[in-house]
Write a structure and sequence with these properties.
174 residues, 22% strand, 5-stranded mixed sheet
């Protein structure tokens, strides 16, 4: 259990990045748990009064990172009444390494030039590679992107040490 924020956020643009670990270690149930968690979070966000239609990105990462969706939360290009972001989420498959740095660089690319409140939800089993202190600093810089990052460990035995560093660059069990 927990919370993302107790402060109501209304009347501004929202930019939300869902960053999903699709490495080989997420096969066998972890990836499906990540998908389920993002679907629940997505539904909670779009059903929040006053939030409008946030810009969203879905970034999947393993040995490298790819943006598989970017656009308004309710975008439905094929008009099948399922938002495109949820269709892309269901299409994710596990395989490869776990490059946190590439995932965060892709996240920075999404936020660059966007106005509004920026949020990152980073889901992983926590067994990552790459150095990412510079990317975390760029994302959380109050004079720049100023993103709020929530790194969430998924799966039994998730390694939280690296995930703890993602939100603020400090090993403080945040």
């Amino acid at each position: 259990t927990g919370f993302v924020s107790r402060t109501p956020v209304e009347g501004q643009n929202f930019n939300i990045a869902f960053v999903v670990d699709t490495s080989g270690s997420t096969s066998g149930g972890v990836l499906q748990s990540e998908i389920d968690a993002i679907e629940a979070l997505y539904n909670s966000i779009i059903n929040t009064p006053g939030i409008g239609t946030p810009n969203m990105v879905l970034i999947e990462f393993d040995s490298d990172a790819n943006t598989v969706f970017s656009g308004p939360a309710n975008q439905d290009n094929n008009e099948n009444e399922t938002p495109d972001i949820l269709e892309q989420l269901q299409a994710l498959r596990a395989g490869g390494g776990t490059n946190f740095e590439a995932a965060l660089q892709q996240t920075i690319t999404f936020f660059t030039g966007l106005a509004g409140a920026n949020f990152v939800f980073f889901l992983s089993d926590g067994f990552g590679s790459g150095t990412f202190a510079d990317e975390t600093a760029t994302l959380t810089d109050p004079e720049g992107i100023n993103a709020t990052i929530r790194a969430i460990g998924i799966g039994q035995g998730a390694s939280t040490a690296q995930l703890d560093l993602l939100d603020d660059g400090i090993p403080n069990n945040s």
